Amino acid sequence: MNHYKKLRLFTIIATLASLLLLGGCTDDKTKTQPLKVGVIAGPESQIMQVALEQAKKMFGLNSELIQFNDYITPNIALFDKSIDVNAYQHQPYLNDVNNSRHYNLVAVGKTFLYPLGAYSKKIKHIEQLSDHAKIAIPNDPSNESRALHLLQKGGLITLKDPNNITATPEDIADNPKKLVFVTLDAAQLPRSLDDVELAVINSTYSVAAGYLPDKDALLLESSQSPYVNLIVARKNNADDPRIKQLVEAYHSQPVLDKARELFKGAAIPGWK
């Protein structure tokens, strides 16, 4: 083998060795970097904190909890890789986000069902709802539909298609009380109770505002609801072993105990 060929062979071998070394360093770096987990500020954040503490005990997992105050930003942050995983949404919402924004987000585990409830400061029973009453509902598409289905269950409206998971007020076939719907950001719904007769609120925000689903809701989703919340990752990082460790830790008894403490029995484990 002449000198040129030997030099070329040596260069190829050295390059491959460097690539392998860099690959190994990247894997090690990934393992030591904190897993960035996005949640909605409030009770769900406290539950996730317990899960992360369990993941640290069980697997030595380093993590960072990132809190958000709306339902839009956590998926944007996940898609642009500002965070590695989030936990706050159900499958219909995730489907809508993926379709409308062309994201590649996937469910990797289940958390809890937080029942949607209808609350009021002005009436004690749903039968007391007045004609032309203002009803506040969430403004994101899937929870807007979810709220309308709850109102249909309560006999207040009838939807054209009872199974339409993307229903809006325009899909109401019968509204005998001529109810007026006001759509608001989910976090604003508890504060709207001073201005409307009824507000349909996610448990995350109702509990934080002092309204307990099983005690204060005039209408409440049943345990058979399909809206179980999810742990969500990107398609290209869904197999990250750190995320699998997080899911396992989330399904531990201390997390379940914390959810029961915070939600007074209104958080239903979706993985059981």
Report on this structure.
With 272 residues, the chain is of the alpha/beta class. The protein is 40% helix and 21% strand. The chain has 9 helices and 14 strands. The strands form 4 sheets. A 5-stranded mixed β-sheet has the order 2-1-3-13-4, with helices on both faces. The chain has a 5-stranded mixed β-sheet with strand order 10-7-11-6-12. A two-stranded antiparallel ribbon has the order 5-14. Strand 1, helix 2 and strand 2 form a beta-alpha-beta unit. Helix 2 crosses helix 8 and helix 2 runs antiparallel to helix 9. The protein is globular and about 60 Å long. The N and C termini lie far apart (67 Å). The N terminus is likely disordered.
Question: How would the blueprint of this fold be written?
Answer:
Layout: H1 3-32, E1 35-40, H2 43-59, E2 63-68, H3 73-79, E3 85-90, H4 91-101, E4 105-110, E5 112-113, E6 117-119, E7 134-138, H5 141-153, E8 158-159, E9 172-174, E10 180-184, E11 198-201, H6 203-208, H7 213-216, E12 219-220, E13 229-234, H8 241-250, H9 253-263, E14 268-269
Parallel strand pairs: 1-2, 1-3, 7-10, 7-11
Antiparallel strand pairs: 3-13, 4-13, 5-14, 6-11, 6-12, 8-9
